[in-house]
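Pilot study result, target chain (696 residues):
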Amino acid sequence: MPLARSLSVTSLSGLEDWDEEFDLEDAVLFEVAWEVANKVGGIYTVIQTKARLTAEEWGENYFLVGPYVESNVRTQVELIEPTNPILKRTIDKMNASGCKVYFGRWLIEGSPYVVLIDVAFTAWSLDRWKSELWENFSIGVPWFDREANDAVLFGFLTAWLLGEYAAQCEEPPHILAHFHEWLAGLGLMLCRRRQLPVATIFTTHATLLGRYLCAGKVDFYNNLAEFNVDKEAGDRQIYHRYCLERSAARCAHVFTTVSQITAIEAEYLLKRKPDIITPNGLNVKKFSAMHEFQNLHAKSKNRIQEFIRGHFYGHLDFNLDKCVFLFIAGRYEFSNKGADIFLEALARLNYLLRVNHSDVTVVAFFIMPARTNNFNVETLKGQAVRKQLWDTAQTVKERFGKKLYESLLVGQLPDVSKMLDKEDFTMMKRAIFSTQRQCQPPICTHNMLEDSSDPILNCIRRIGLFNCSADRVKVIFHPEFLSSTSPLLPMDYEEFVRGCHLGVFPSYYEPWGYTPAECTVMGIPSISTNLSGFGCFMEEHIADPSAYGIYILDRRFRGVDESCNQLTSFLFQFCKQSRRQRIIQRNRTERLSDLLDWRYLGRYYISARHMALAKAFPDTYMYEAQDPTSSSGFRYPRPASVPPSPSLSRHSSPHHSDDEDERYDEDLEAEKDRVNIRQPFVAKTKDGDGVPSESD
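Predicted structure:
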């Protein structure tokens, strides 16, 4: 049943009215994605974090379907016998027919059931299924596109699974299948073509053509209506992939996407307006202590400072206590992720800090995996020198302490001039001489395989940020995912983010944006754009996002140079904040984490599922979308107390006045913010009992 309007994130306040009860006793949910127990990109995070809430709602009738990848299964999945008798007969029948289908529990929060299909085992059917794809949908897949070949195998096997499950049911089944992205879309198309009793949902997390067009540096969002989509897809040799994605979107009972900005994109590129927008959430874990996340920030920051001490040995002529750590992280897409504009803004920030004689030093980290062959020797040497200096200092300290102890034992005040002997001074001088360096601190921590053509390194060469002593902005390019076992920077990603002061994500193409969302949940301010789903979402629900540490960069209605100037202004204003102002801002940022909790945003997926069931089985299910009571959604007002702005806030001091306390009352401000958030969603289990949230 077609709906007259698309449900948007602006309808968030209306969710409390979506209280219709659906009898899910006879329904079963299959959620199909290439990234089930198989980490490739952000969709893995979506499915992994949402699984607990969905498992609470559907119980034993929830199954995730993905590819069998042996290396992942060994560490993430516990293989067991199917608990559902119908599914057991289905899997046994498929295995007897020449397939390899596995069943188990995914070892994540919620422990959902997974059905994993070995696509390589049925590769012998590829040509036959490609022929069927052409006959039924007129889509041809070239032999050399391995990813598309996997999509064909996975799609036919998924449709086989759903069809066999329906055939094994003794009574007419109510099957709901949710497909994520084009790699899983063929299964949906086959379900509709074969007229299986399956309600279908298709979610696109980013359009294929949109990502390619943006990488080509076109004015994408202001020319959406002008693109000849068939020609553009053909020119980029992705026409067959585009056809699979577009067909899946058109065939689905319910079509969803992750943000309002991507909904506009999908309407023009996929030729269908999404029925509902399903923003991505996270599992938010609140600390029992009010400021525990601030303590974690301080602890992680100290570990980053230790790395900085080694990396800049011999050139450590700046105060680490007045050092601001910025970072950008994600897939290495130089323009799409905004690394180009970030580097240009850093060059301009460097100029502003120098001409204003600022004592603040900025260290900008680029965490983007690229092709390397090993660690940079100079970088490893820096950490070795730092450790040697630490060992020398500890040795001298022990000798000093022993002499001090012996002097006090005999009742004499120590003669300071005799506490350090000639051997101690020799040891310290040798340590100091070892820190001498004939070259600048390295930009890149690894040896790049394509150094001369690397976009980040070439841009750094152009703008001249070489970590010189006169530069107030230092750059470190770490072309590898962070790991706690690394000999260079032994921190995992979450720990590293907590230790930084600001995440910078000036993306030109970002359908949602998990990196700024993760920063928000950890209480770290971030810069996003009005072309990212996250940025648009926050702009809708916060009256003054920058006061809460969410800076929204305008990349849609401004040129590149104007956007770069705006980003430079954001960074410069942030560098002018005092330590106390940054603490206030982090407190506010962390309070926004409730907005990103699956306990709230999961309701959109629930609504999409109810909508699909009502469309596919109108005799059994009925769904009416209710207009929200307010179109403004959750709306965080501008903080009434002192904003974290250098122009209005005072410098931090050990003994601030009572007047300043009155201007910033955190408990009062937090209580006002809590009024703007409804109670968390409580999933209904099969027996009708609610599953309380962690905050209850």
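One observation from the pilot: Residues 1-20, 627-633, 646-662, 678-696 have pLDDT under 50 and may be disordered. A full batch analysis is planned for the follow-on phase.
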